[in-house]
Amino acid sequence: MNVLVCDDDHEIAKAIEIYLRNEGYEVLRASNGAEAVNICRDHDVHLVLMDLMMPVMDGMQATKIIRESNDIPIIMLTAKGEDYDKITGLNIGADDYVTKPFNPLELIARVRAQLRRYTDFGKRDTESGVYRSGGLVIDDVQKTVSVEGNPVAVTPIEYGILKLLTQNAGRVFSMEQIYESVWNEPAFNPENTVAVHIRRIREKIEINPREPRYLKVVWGIGYKIEKI
């Protein structure tokens, strides 16, 4: 697996590279967002660790460009307390974030989880089913999503949320349940992360995200896919 580390701080990037190589990953390096975009275009990259504040092109803009043509996992590297940046990054397509200074064990755990989800997303499981709610169809054989026959491009995280809710249409899941089921780790204050992904999904599957037909909120409890 090839992991791209994009950070203009050489010491931090080098430390991350050592951690990743010790776990058996191949590492590519970029010192700004423009380099990261070019590397993702020219190389087989399976995951990106993206710093936000960088010269030439920052991590936000690079994430947005990469996400336009690539569904690989992107984990942001953010400074402690940058909640606005975390939410903005998730909104434009990042899958997760790690706060600096980071615990190496947490970093590796998040990389593993995202890569596992990404590789599972690409598998074709002939024993899986097709889940429907009205015109919303989750085909777990082909790992695809469509609405009224039109294909919808989703990331592995978005697919995981949609699959969970659609195969249990009508059942309400709390944010904690969604996080623990899709991210496969204990939920600690998952509200922002889950809410941002729900918003992104609505923008993709709903004609009017403000008046959703499929993905409904049950105030004070959680979310569900309407059983149609």
Describe the structure in your own words:
- There is one protein chain.
- The chain is of the alpha/beta class.
- The chain folds into two domains: 2-121, Response regulator (Rossmann fold); 130-225, Arc Repressor Mutant, subunit A (Orthogonal Bundle), CATH 1.10.10.
- The chain is 43% helix and 21% strand.
- It has eight helices and eleven strands.
- The strands form three sheets. It has a five-stranded parallel β-sheet with strand order 2-1-3-4-5, with helices on both faces. A four-stranded antiparallel β-sheet has the order 6-7-8-9, covered by helices on one side. Strands 10-11 form a two-stranded antiparallel ribbon.
- β4, α4 and β5 form a beta-alpha-beta unit.
- α7 packs across α8.
- It starts with a strand and ends with a strand.
- The mean pLDDT is 90.
Largest sheet: 5 strands, parallel
Tally the structural domains.
Answer: 2
Q: Which overall shape is indicated by the principal axes computed on the Cα atoms?
A: globular
The CATH homologous superfamily name of the largest domain equals Response regulator
Q: Describe the strand arrangement of the main beta sheet, using strand numbers.
A: 2-1-3-4-5
The top-level CATH class of the largest domain is Alpha Beta
- Reported by name, the CATH topology of the largest domain is Rossmann fold
Spatial separation of the terminal alpha carbons: 40 Å
How many β strands by DSSP? Answer: 11
